[in-house]
Each structure stands twice: as structure tokens, then as C-alpha cells.
Design a protein that fits this description.
Low-confidence stretches of chain A: 243-259
Structural class of chain A: alpha/beta
Distance between the termini of chain A: 39 Å
Number of strands of chain A: 6
Helix content of chain A: 25-40%
Shape of chain A: globular
Mean pLDDT of chain A: 92
Radius of gyration of chain A: 19 Å
Oligomer: homodimer
Largest sheet of chain A: 6 strands, parallel
Chain lengths: 259, 259
């Protein structure tokens, strides 16, 4: 497989750096091809501005998405954006390696998304959204670290369910552009617990070795929504499957009957 | 009141710019004091790095949060971070004005959070988290714009419930540091519909005029969680109130009885 790792951490000797190196080594040993974007090392520009376009459709007022669409038609993206788009086009799997900062991605990765996930290229224009997005057919995996315990991210935990925390990224970014989202790898409690860090590296290696066989999270295809973009009642049942695929407790027969 | 507006949009003539100007004018007319951080105009640095600290506790390996904690004790933050912290300290209400990009905030605002919401100052250290956070007593309001229709953000809508989309920001960032989070102001469908933009300005003005009287969203205080940070079953009922305060359909008596 062709695997693109987008790695974001200011400290190369961090656990995130070690997880990135582990992925590189493990996947290369399996014969996969790898490209890495180390956004801090690249000093990637995180700021969406009019300077992202070699030519503007409208010089007067900046409509960023409209300029993206225009740039997609006229190949007017700056070189740094084009290089990342080329890696995305090449990839069959994209791994995002980053620490959970404020229950989300570091600003630098968000800036990469804001600038590189361009309308007209990865969604919209000749493409649609969600399962009609421009990156359909590709897989995505979040590999993230958190300083707090896993139980804090349970459905009754103080921080809220990890599925709820990652939903805007997994559904709103990755599935929005058509990618099949694999269940996330989350390394918990990694700040104060050296054993947890070691265990995370072992667990992640197993996840990487099983990468090709891993089933994606179930998200509804567009065809499950009506003309007002509302989930058709007959498909509401499938919501439950999300939790099965996400590795949570599977349904038992009694729960099935209640739904 | 002392109101701090954090405004993030690359185009001053955008709807976001107009909403920011409207807030400034409306609140000043009511006799409130206002400060604005226009992050694009300020060319605020979005990138968390070791350069954020005038002196490092550990020169060898960067532990960003540990350095924040150290900087909080030794006043070692760079000038740009200290100025924003001073505005936060001054403010009684903080309004965040930004476009929903990828179901979240623009990278520049995330960078402001990553750098300014420092451990030891707005949470942790001598403070705790959530209702024990360093910004407790202050209120926060998200004022955001979206290019798509409101129905896309209903509980059965294609994008997912807006409450679910904003949860990592409202609960994970704003409530985490102790702020009382007011129900968000969301201007929908603002790209292709000029009428929607006009209506958004009128609606927002009404929200601003009612700002002081607006009830915050209900989030559980720490005391509702047990020693494992799990919500105590006797408080699970209160989950429902979230939806009442968020301006959704209130419960009726029959629903109440079922819970």
C-alpha cells in the first residue's frame, strides 16, 4: 500500500515522534511505500490567506472557498499546497499522527486541512461531499495521544465520549471528503505513565500490522438521507453499528430487539 | 460589562467582519467596555513552539504543557501571549467570532487557544479544570457562520447535530477552563443567500442586546462525577437539560416521566 503519514509535533523526541517512526519502520518492513509530511520540520504555513493563490478570481474581496474552486480549475495553488495535494492523490491510506490538544488537532494540522483540503480538489466542484468526495476510496487513520486516562473519555466520563470528541474530525473532515475512516488509535495517559507509553507503542504496532484488514467506521452514505439531507427513518437503526465498528461493546440480541 | 471579542477572518469585508463590527457598536452603545483581538490583522502567531517561553525549564526535550506551567510561575511567556492573557483576565465576557471551517475553528484561532490557554494560568497548577478552571466566573459566546443550511445540523441532518459539532469547543475548551458557555449564535446558509446574511445581523443584534440575561448551557459540575471521573447515575437526568438551555425543544411532561 501507499501510506502518507501527516505528523505534527514540535518535539521530535516525543511519543508522537516515536509513534511516527514506528509506523514508518513497521509499514516499510511489510513492503509498503511511505511518504511523511512532518509539518513542524517543514515549517508548513498554517494560515489561510489570499497568498495561497497564484491568481485570484476576485481581487477585491477574498472568498476563500471560491478561490479554492477557481484555483482547482486553473492550477493556481501555491507550491506548498500542490505538493501536499500530490501526496494525497498518491496515497491509499493517510495516517494523521498528532497529540490531542484541546480535544482537537494542533493548529498547524488544522491549517494544513484549511489550506490543502481544497474545494474543487478533495470535495465539491466536480466531486460531491461525503461518499461522493474527492478522496473516496482512500482510508484514513487518526493516531492520537492524550495525557488523561481512557476512562475520562468513556460515555459517562468527564471529558465526554472519545467518539463524540473525534466526530468533527472523523466525520466532518475525513468522511466529508470521502475517506473511509478506520477506528482511531488513541494512546491514553501518556504524560505521567512511562508504562502506558511503552504499551502504546506495542499496541500501535499491532494496529499497523492489521491495517489492511481493519474495517472502517460505519457512516451513512448519502443515499441514506432524503432530499432535505435528513437521515431516512429506515436507516436510523444503522446508527448503532457505528459503535460496533468503533470497537465498542457489540449489541446483544436483547438490545437489538429494543431498537 | 467588559467584553473581549476574539475575531478571526482573513477578509475584513466578510460577514464575520460585519458581525464583529455589529457587536462592537451594539455593546458600546449599551455602555459596555470592549477590547478586540483581530487575529489576522495582528498577524498573531498560531504555532506552539519552544520560542513561546523566555526561559525553558528543560532545554533538552520540549514538554509544552510543563513549560506553560513553569512560565506561569516565572512569568516567562512571550509578550504576545501575555497581552492576550491580560485581555482574558480583564474580560467578563469573551465572544469568539469566526467562520466554521471544517466543523471547527480556523487554524489561527486554534493556535491562539493552543498558546494562550496556558496550563497554570487558565487551568491546572493552582487551578483545577472545568468548574474549577482559571477562567471561572467569566462567560463565553461562540458566534459562528456556516455556508450550509440549519437543517444539515439537526440531530438527523447530514452534518450531525450542531451541539455535537461544537461540543469539543464549548465543553472541551471553554467549559474546561471554567467559563460559563452561552448558547452559540450560528448564522447558517450565509454563502449563497444574501437574505440569510441580513437576517443573521438582525438576529445577532437581538442576541447581543439580551447578552446579560442569557442563561448558560448546562454542563455538569465536577461534583456530579465520582472519584473515577464518571457521571454519578443520579445526575444522568441533567444531561437532558443541555438541550433545554441550548434553545432546543423543551421537554414536555410525558418525556419527563420517561426519564
Amino acid at each position: 500500500m501507499k501510506v502518507f503519514i501527516v505528523y505534527v509535533h514540535p518535539e521530535p523526541r516525543s511519543l508522537n515522534g516515536a509513534l511516527k517512526d514506528l509506523a514508518l519502520r513497521t509499514l516499510q518492513n511489510q513492503g509498503h511505500q511511505i511518504q511523511v509530511s512532518d509539518l513542524y520540520a517543514m515549517q508548513f504555513n498554517a494560515l489561510a490567506t489570499r497568498a495561497d493563490f497564484l491568481a485570484l478570481q476576485c481581487e477585491d474581496v477574498l472568498h476563500y472557498m471560491a478561490e479554492q474552486l477557481h484555483a482547482a480549475e486553473t492550477l493556481a495553488f501555491t507550491q506548498d499546497i500542490r505538493e501536499e495535494l500530490e501526496k494525497l492523490r498518491w496515497a491509499e491510506v493517510v495516517i494523521f499522527q498528532f497529540p490531542l490538544w484541546w480535544f482537537s488537532m494542533p493548529a498547524l494540522l488544522k491549517g494544513w486541512i484549511d489550506r490543502v483540503f481544497a474545494m474543487g480538489v478533495v470535495y465539491g466542484g466536480k466531486f460531491g461531499i461525503y461518499d461522493q468526495g474527492g478522496l473516496r476510496g482512500k482510508k484514513a487513520l487518526l493516531s492520537v495521544t492524550s495525557g488523561t486516562r481512557a476512562t475520562m473519555y468513556s460515555p459517562t466520563g468527564l471529558n465526554g465520549d472519545i467518539e463524540r470528541i473525534l466526530y468533527p474530525i472523523q466525520h466532518g473532515i475525513l468522511y466529508f471528503v470521502g475517506m473511509q475512516v478506520l477506528p482511531p488509535f488513541v494512546a491514553y495517559n501518556v504524560i505521567h505513565d512511562a508504562q502506558a507509553r511503552e504499551q502504546a507503542l506495542r499496541d500501535y504496532e499491532q494496529r499497523l500490522l492489521a491495517l489492511e484488514a481493519t474495517e472502517p467506521i460505519f457512516y451513512h452514505p448519502l443515499s441514506h438521507y432524503d432530499e432535505h439531507r435528513q437521515l431516512r427513518p429506515e436507516f436510523a437503526r444503522a446508527e448503532y453499528e457505528l459503535h460496533v465498528f468503533a470497537g465498542k461493546e457489540a449489541s446483544n440480541d436483547e438490545t437489538d430487539k429494543e431498537i
